[in-house]
């Protein structure tokens, strides 16, 4: 489904991704692990077509994703419907007058009729357990409530792949447990999950595979999540623990 081939990426003169080779199959659940600044968020932006390789290629379902293709609004819409991105900073994702409108935005962009839009919004409000926030202004919600709203917005488009950048950040333990169970449920329902995280305590049972990024901005290990997380020497060596 996702094929990242010999990808390098630079911000001006700073090399941020080096020699990245990753294949991801439909239905996988993958954690991105690594110290701050190692390139996890950049990799997730690449997967979402926010940035493009300075060298190498990224393909989704056999089709190379580049800026030229995404300039075509039909292609771009179809791609962004399949790959949903939950930003690290929810404020960057929320801009409507209330939570209902916020969740309805994506389905309306897809051209669905209002009955279907309403059905999707109500399903997502229920799934995220935020029905009581329906008419609240997103701007005034707590961090955890904003995160749930942002996830509902992405799920309302029914994407195949869910990409999350440190979703546990700034959320209380109850919210983290809720999110953990939601991710497990979504993966069981067939969604591919790709998620950066530092929060090993709250993600037990979510991930089957881990990609480990080093301070040198390359992937130093691609292995089962449990094998990585139980390898204390490795985690210490790469400044993860
Ligand atoms: P991580 O998510 O693993 O903490 P990032 O992908 O955010 O790492 O960042 C990787 C590197 O890229 C860091 O050194 C960071 O300072 C740099 N970086 C991130 N965004 C930008 C940007 N917009 N311009 C210049 N450098 C950036
Ligand atoms: Mg990051």
What would you say this structure looks like, in words?
The protein is of the alpha/beta class and 241 residues long. It has one domain (2-92, 157-237): P-loop containing nucleotide triphosphate hydrolases (Rossmann fold). Helix content is 37%, strand content 24%. It is built from nine helices and ten strands. The chain has helices at 40-47, 67-71, 73-82, 99-109, 114-127, 143-155, 173-188, 225-229, 232-237, and strands at 2-11, 14-24, 29-33, 55-60, 63-64, 83-86, 161-165, 192-196, 209-213, 219-224. It has a six-stranded mixed β-sheet, sandwiched between helices. α4 (99-109) packs across α5, α4 runs parallel beside α6 (143-155) and α5 (114-127) packs across α6. It starts with a strand and ends with a helix. The relative contact order is 0.18. The model has no long low-confidence stretch (mean pLDDT 95). Adenosine-5'-diphosphate (ADP) binds at residues 11, 14, 16, 34, 36-42, 213. It is a peripheral membrane protein. GO terms for molecular function: ATP binding; ATP hydrolysis activity; ATPase-coupled transmembrane transporter activity.
> What is the approximate shape?
globular
Instruction: Supply the number of helical segments.
Output: 9
Under the CATH scheme, the architecture is 3-Layer(aba) Sandwich
State Rg: 18 Å
Unreliable stretches covering 5 or more consecutive residues: none
CATH topology value: Rossmann fold
N to C succession of SSEs? EEEHEEHHEHHHEHEEEHH
Report how far the terminal alpha carbons are from each other. 31 Å
Number of domains: 1
**How is the largest sheet built, in terms of strand order?**
6-7-8-3-9-10
Helix content: 25-40%
| Average pLDDT figure | 95
Oligomer: single chain
User: Helices and strands: which structural class?
Assistant: alpha/beta
Main pleated-sheet profile: 6 strands, mixed
Structure ligands: adenosine-5'-diphosphate, magnesium ion
Keywords: ATP-binding, Cell membrane, Hydrolase, Membrane, Nucleotide-binding, Translocase, Transport
GO molecular function: ATP binding; ATP hydrolysis activity; ATPase-coupled transmembrane transporter activity
Protein name: Nickel import ATP-binding protein NikO
Enzyme class: hydrolase
